[in-house]
Amino acid sequence: MLIGVILLVVLLAPHPSVAGTKTAVPLRVAYSSISGSAIVPWIAFDKGLFAKYDLEVELIYVAGSQAMQSLLSSTTQIGIQGIEPVFRVNAHGGDTVMILGLVTKPPFSIIARPEIKDFRELRGKPMGITRFGSSTDLLLRLTLDKWGLKPETDVPILQMGGVPPILAGMQSKKIFGGPLSLPTLARAKQEGYRELADIADLVPDYQVAGVVTRRAFLRQNTDAVRGFIKAVAEATAIFRSDSGYVKKVIKERLKIDDPLVIEETQKNYPRYMPRVPYPSRAGIAVIKAFLERTEPALRQLSIDDQIDIQLVRELEQSGFFNSLQRAQ
Questions:
Q1: What is the chain's percent helix, strand, coil content, to nearest 5?
Q2: According to the model, what pLDDT value does residue 328 have?
């Protein structure tokens, strides 16, 4: 009798799929810089937003262009990175694609040591970037061009490996300046380093960071990628609206203790992020035109083939992004 009751309970118990529960999809996600763009996925992680959309996300810091290599090797499935490596990989037959524009205006300033009073004084003095081919590299070269200085010829350019190491290089006098973004930018200003230019004033449209994946992964895991986009969008809304929580994430995840640096990052970084996160075609066009000067293989590529806005458009049309703004 007891066995019969147990069997009846087992038979009548809802199957996990019937009950509506899902197995979480594991995702390894690389972010390529310690900057404001890294705050968003950490908000999503700590707030449980990835779990909300049935994702088990592991966030991994992979500096610069190595983030793309981790994507190509399938070590990671999604990257928070720039569009430049997408162009370079796809020019050689790759299938990478940017599906969301996280930061579409350059949140960088050209910062120099205090003794540099004017950009003309940079001639002959080395400047630092994260890595060749990165956003910091292109933005520095674009800025030097606008100032009438020839990169490499008039101003040597050194790879430092990341944004915080650019400031460290200035402190040690290995370099005299470079592009910095928040929160490192706030720390540099606080320490007395000189802002020569807000790059957003010189280059208003620039696709700095976005969500990148491979087309094959997108096709095979559309629901998971849609969930990832929703989680990132909700985290971006929290970035704008919940200053206390954002400051906590900056302190704990980016390991920043200075309250003034945390305050400036939380307050100012969201202005570089679009409310509806399409990749910036105008910003990508700027990058493509600049890359083509030295990388003619990129001329054959169209901008539309480097981005896929289907999921962002679908969510916009459903009212998802508007609902986030109304909730703020």
A1: 50, 15, 30
A2: 62
**Would you say 48 and 178 are in contact if contact means Cβ atoms under 8 Å apart?**
no
Report residue 5 as tokens. 């009751």
The bridge status of strand 209-214 relative to strand 194-198 is: unpaired
Task: Calculate what percentage of the chain has a pLDDT beyond 90.
Answer: 80
Element (H, E) at 111: strand 108-112
Whether residue 213 contacts residue 78, with contact meaning beta carbons closer than 8 Å, is answered with: yes
Could you please report the per-residue DSSP string of 154-218? Answer: TB-EEE-SSHHHHHHHHHTTS-SEEEEETTHHHHHHHTT-EEEEEHHHH------EEEEEEHHHH
Our CA angle for 322, 278, 63, nearest 5°, is 120
Model pTM? 0.84
Q: What is the Cα 138 distance to its own chain's centre?
A: 16
In the block, residue with structure tokens 């990508």: 284
* CB-based burial label for 126 (10 Å; 0-12, 13-18, 19+): middle
Task: DSSP letter for 80, please.
Answer: E
Q: What pLDDT sits at residue 17?
A: 39
Model pLDDT for residues 108-122, shown as the tens digit of each residue: 999 999 999 999 999
Structure tokens at 178: 């470079």
